[in-house]
Design a protein that fits this description.
230 residues; alpha+beta; two-stranded parallel sheet; 11 strands
Length: 230
C-alpha cells in the first residue's frame, strides 16, 4: 500500500539515516503493518502532487484533513487518528487567567476585551479576530510572538502546542509563558484512501484498530515522543 506524504516534522519526515519517522508514520506502522499486517510504502512528494496522485490512482492513500473536494475522490474512516488542538497561551501571572481559561471562541475573546499577539500573514487570525474588532498586535517573524507575550505586550497567543513549545524552549521562555486548557479550534486528521485503490476496503478495520490504539494508550505514547511537554 503506497502512502504519499509531504515532509512535515513532527508528523512525517526522515532522519539523518534516511529512515522514516514522525507521529503519523508511527501510528500507521503500528496500525497497518503490525496490527493489520498490511505492508506500507512511503513516497515523499510536494503536497499538491500528493493529492493529485491519490485523485489519479497513482498512490493509495494520504493523511490529512477531510474537505468536500477530497471526499470527491477518496474515502475515509469515522474516527480521527489524531486531533490537533489550537490552544490559548498567556503570560504567567495574568490577572485574568481564570477568565482566559474559560474562553471558547473569538466572540468571547472580543467580548472580554483581550488582545491577541500574532505574526504578519496569519490569515486565520485576520479572518477570525481582526474582522470582528479584536485588537491584534503583529510581529514580523513567527517565533517573536513568544517574546512579545513574555513581555506582556498583549494578552494571549493562539497556537498549536506542538508548534509552540519548541519555540518557547528555544528562547528560554518556559518560566514566563503558560499554556491554558482553552481550545479555540480542533483539527482532526484521517487516513484518506483513493476511491480507485484496491485498499479502500480496509477502512472499517482501520477505524476499529485506531479506536483500540486510542483506548490502549498507544497513540498517546507515540504523540508524547514527538511533542515537547509544557
Amino acid at each position: 500500500m503506497k502512502i504519499v506524504y509531504p515532509d512535515f516534522y513532527p508528523f512525517f519526515s526522515r532522519n539523518n539515516e534516511n529512515k522514516m519517522t514522525g507521529i503519523f508514520y508511527e501510528i500507521i506502522r503500528e496500525a497497518l503493518e503490525k496490527r493489520m499486517h498490511i505492508k506500507v510504502e512511503w513516497e515523499n512528494l510536494p503536497w499538491k502532487r500528493c493529492q493529485h496522485n491519490i485523485k489519479n490512482n497513482l498512490a493509495d492513500a494520504m493523511i490529512t484533513t477531510i474537505t468536500p473536494i477530497r471526499m470527491e475522490y477518496s474515502s475515509t474512516h469515522p474516527y480521527p487518528l489524531f486531533i490537533q488542538s489550537v490552544n490559548i497561551f498567556t503570560y504567567k501571572g495574568h490577572e485574568d487567567l481564570k477568565e482566559i481559561e474559560q474562553l471558547k471562541n473569538f466572540n468571547e475573546i472580543y467580548e472580554a476585551g483581550f488582545s491577541i499577539i500574532t505574526y504578519l500573514g496569519n490569515g486565520w487570525i485576520e479572518r477570525n479576530a481582526e474582522s470582528i474588532g479584536i485588537k491584534v498586535h503583529k510581529v514580523t517573524q513567527r517565533d517573536k510572538v513568544w517574546k512579545m507575550l513574555a513581555l506582556k505586550r498583549g494578552d494571549i497567543v493562539i497556537e498549536w502546542p506542538g508548534g509552540a513549545w519548541p519555540e518557547i524552549h528555544k528562547f528560554n521562555l518556559k518560566e514566563h509563558i503558560q499554556q491554558t486548557d482553552a481550545v479555540i479550534n480542533s483539527v482532526p486528521f484521517h487516513l484518506l484512501i483513493g476511491n480507485k485503490s484496491p485498499y479502500r476496503h480496509i477502512l472499517p478495520g482501520f477505524n476499529i484498530t485506531i479506536r483500540k490504539m486510542i483506548e490502549d494508550g498507544t497513540i498517546r505514547k507515540i504523540t508524547e515522543k514527538y511533542l515537547p511537554s509544557k
